Fold each of these.
Amino acid sequence: IITAWRDKEAAQRGPRAADYRMQILKRALNWHVSQGNIDRNPAAGVGAIWRGDRSEIIWETRHVEAYC
């Protein structure tokens, strides 16, 4: 159920937004575990789906020289 919800959020809002929402859910459920309200966090172990690639914005020496 949790993975299906995450996938639906990713389809509607994008994978990064879905991962942010999963982080919030995991933290909330961890709090409930610490309070004794639930035995375990059912969202634990659900992986992230967003993969960031920032390689395009890294400036190498040649880029700095060309800019200057």
Note: The mean pLDDT is 94.
Amino acid sequence: IGTGIYFNGNALSENNIVAETIIENTSSTIKFVVLPDSSKVELSPNSKISYGANFALNRKIEIDGEAYFKVKKDKQHPFQVFCDETTTTVLGTSFIVKESENEEITVELFEGSVQMNVKGQDQKWILKPGDKFTYGNQKASLTEFNRFIDFDNQKLSVVSQYIEENYGYKVILPNENLNQKITIRINKKEDLKTIVQLISEMYNLNFEINEDLKQITFQ
């Protein structure tokens, strides 16, 4: 599920944060983490996050590797992530941050709003959903990206395949619904349950989500 977040190892020390909690993903699959402030992280393989003991009040975090954040809204305690010379300040949103091999940093915003700052510069960039911030070679730019995927009169089984490939849940549909057509636009980072509920309402189906088997059954 993610293109993700790549941070350098000096972020916390530069901001006077002592990392007392370290969570590492040594498996081959995405690890789902709930932070002390109830924000959610999808931590990719060979990645880790670290933060201070008072994180719920001082929401600064360091990432090594790759991750996708969905941040709980808290106007009193902004959520900050540090990546090289950039700082992303969040109130409540979902976004991706990525540092490429050539040290180019990109931030893609799916929901909410974020403020971007670059070390040593007074200018601030306020992103809205669908905005992409890029910083590299001491130059910053703001463009747009497509945060949706469209299914135009496609079989419901195609949407089921999309769910399996992007969320890791096998979808079981009644045979009579497999070839039914659907036209729908989905946020690429939409909550799985929201998509399942929408399909259920559109086709008047009941559903059951089995977390142990990672399986969704419609009937």
Note: The first strand starts at residue 21 and ends at 25.
Amino acid sequence: ARVDDRRVINSIFYVLRTGSPWRDLPSRYGPHTTVYNRFNRWAKAGVWVRVFEALSASSPGSMHLIDSSIIRATSTPPVEKGGPDHAIGRSRGGLSTKINAVVDENGLPVRLMLTAGQAHD
């Protein structure tokens, strides 16, 4: 029996929202392989592009995109406990800072934010 599309969409949103691997999908959403395969099939068929185009056409100005770049931090003296947050964190490559940018549909910046290098988007 085919798994309900609504359940699959909720499953996909769960994975995208939490950043968890497909295999860690809670059992209430059904088999992770079904969700993963449906997500890929829809991506290859252009379903997600059509959904985003329809949503952005019905609500102009609502589309925002996020991107980030990791910058290696230079050696700095230790920060005092309780001191200012310099958005420097330890990641695989050493000390780094992540620059996050949210832009509108025209690529114009809406918000810039610095986070520690190990922070997830």
Note: The beta strands are 64-72, 89-91, 94-104, 109-116.
Amino acid sequence: MNPLYRQTAFLTSAAKLSQTPPDTGFEVAFAGRSNAGKSSAINALCDQKTLARTSKTPGRTQLLNFFAVDEQRRIVDLPGYGYAKVAEDIKREWQGSLAAYLEGRDCLRGLMLVMDIRHPLKDYDLQMLHWANTISLPVHGLLTKADKLKKGPAGSTLLKVRAAMQKISPTFSAQTFSSLKRTGIDDAHAKLDEWLAFDDTAQAL
């Protein structure tokens, strides 16, 4: 594991694109349904327990939250989507800020799409994949909570998700992941390293 991930720290929150940090360097965004385990995945990847706030009430992440890996690299926790109890006007506001960020952020290098392995590729997930393909944004799927399934069903689900994603774009990829069991972290780090442009020197620090 690149030790820089352990040094990741909260930078700022933004309700709209004009409030985001300067559009320089490299960013990787995390998106997903409100109960997919997005914050837990970010915490596991950065080997920190409370970096990204986790909540038993889905839909709490209403802002774009920026975390600095170093001066040039950031992880971005996007507003969760698809939570039924959130008011429609708030949903539209979230989706507006989400669209502006994904379409207008030059330093964005990739999107980690977080999906519960037991409920992957819901309507909002598919919309996000088609949208990402339209704007030529690379996507890597994290099938979280993989510890909830036995190895056989988990592997079968992964194959189906990969096939569905690659029908949308042959460049899209996916993996299984468990924050609880800390499985899949090395593979996810490899994708983050690629998108955040860590070279061999940075890896060896």
Note: The beta strands are 9-14, 26-32, 64-68, 73-77, 108-116, 139-144, 173-176.
